[in-house]
Amino acid sequence: MVPFMKRAKVRLFVDQPLGQGQSVALSREQAHYLLGVMRLGVGDLVALFNGVDGEWQAEVAEAGKKRGILVCVERSASLRMPPDLWLLFAPIKKVRTDFIVEKAAEMGAARIFPVQTAFTNSERTRRDRLQAHAVEAAEQCGGTYVPEVADIARLDRVLAEWPADRHLMFCDEGLAGEGAGLPHVKGPWAILIGPEGGFSDDERARLVRMEQAHAVSLGPRILRADTAAVAALTVWQQALGDW
Amino acid sequence: MVPFMKRAKVRLFVDQPLGQGQSVALSREQAHYLLGVMRLGVGDLVALFNGVDGEWQAEVAEAGKKRGILVCVERSASLRMPPDLWLLFAPIKKVRTDFIVEKAAEMGAARIFPVQTAFTNSERTRRDRLQAHAVEAAEQCGGTYVPEVADIARLDRVLAEWPADRHLMFCDEGLAGEGAGLPHVKGPWAILIGPEGGFSDDERARLVRMEQAHAVSLGPRILRADTAAVAALTVWQQALGDW
What we know:
Chain A has 243 residues and is α/β, with parallel strands linked by helices. Chain A has helices at residues 28-37, 94-107, 127-141, 155-160, 201-209, 225-240, and strands spanning 11-13, 23-25, 45-49, 55-63, 68-77, 85-89, 111-116, 148-149, 153-154, 167-171, 189-193, 213-216. Chain A folds into two domains: 4-77, CATH 2.40.240.20; 85-240, 3-Layer(aba) Sandwich (Alpha/beta knot). The model of chain A has no long low-confidence stretch (mean pLDDT 90).
């Protein structure tokens, strides 16, 4: 068993199988990061996870200039899936969109879903960039799972095909201060954060008609979308999630 | 009465008295922003607040190149004080420190208090810069109050002189997943967010000894300090605050 004090300080997501004695070849970027930037050498430990096999302590077995090989020594955590919770949000300025993805991963959303609303300003999101942020957040927060970032889709179409069994908590700044609470029903859930400028009348009317939808207030002040995402995830996790 | 549709789209904090017919001279920066950047002219409305007199709709009465005068027309909101809640946190990287201040203002903290812990990396904070962020957040979120940003102080000294009647909720990543909850006691409160790298053994021992202190868990994942600040403020506001 690897003594606790010797355990890895660096966590890395790898898209490869992990298991006792399994060797893992690093990509060029990973080798550069671990062996160049973090200056790890043969015998040093790294914590690996792949979203499936839990977390493994792996030892550096080969350290070259542009390549490296790790070997899994011991499983240090089992896979911990987040609750079946999606976070839908309308992309905003780049930095804040990145923050929302990071926060969703830290707070334990299972799927991150950018949606284009009537009042969404920014229409372009790069799924690969956002997915990389989710990976980095999972590495940082000690998670063993990386939420999937979906391609952006139009909110009206997403709601038109909304799964019958998935509850939807939506946070509307029009509700500021009104006391709607979260119903304590189990099952698949999603949180929808309103765009800056709020929902359109059509969107709000459609949400109000949906049986699966529940309006929840996030207090008397108007929150920015990234603040609202963390606050809404906290409300949900406390009531129905894994906190 | 000012018709709702005509109401101001711009909100501005001013450090001057507000009241019926009161004229307010803009600073050079404010004149540049309102008259230059936002292109307001004589007769246009601006929402003003000063942290004391509520929110006032004010009309541009004079618009020069580097100066402008507004006249208060009607009070559009009364002063709404946040709960008596302080947020203590250890400054981190600049952008994230700015975010914590912004989020604290949006979430309704009354006082923002940077503290230097044993494991705080960054020792330099500029109070005036952070205070400006709190003002901007208050302008954005529709608040009529601006939380005060205190000068940074050493955590051990702050705790040594801690007010007997102020409860302290501290969030410790060492608690991840353990179920300590927030006691529902009213009165003055503060939230202390642990630094990246956690509290030192001395700090934790001192906190545990304090009668006013209550450890609260923020779930099984390790949250970055800015995420933890919003999550902790949400937990507190839901249980004891103005949500």
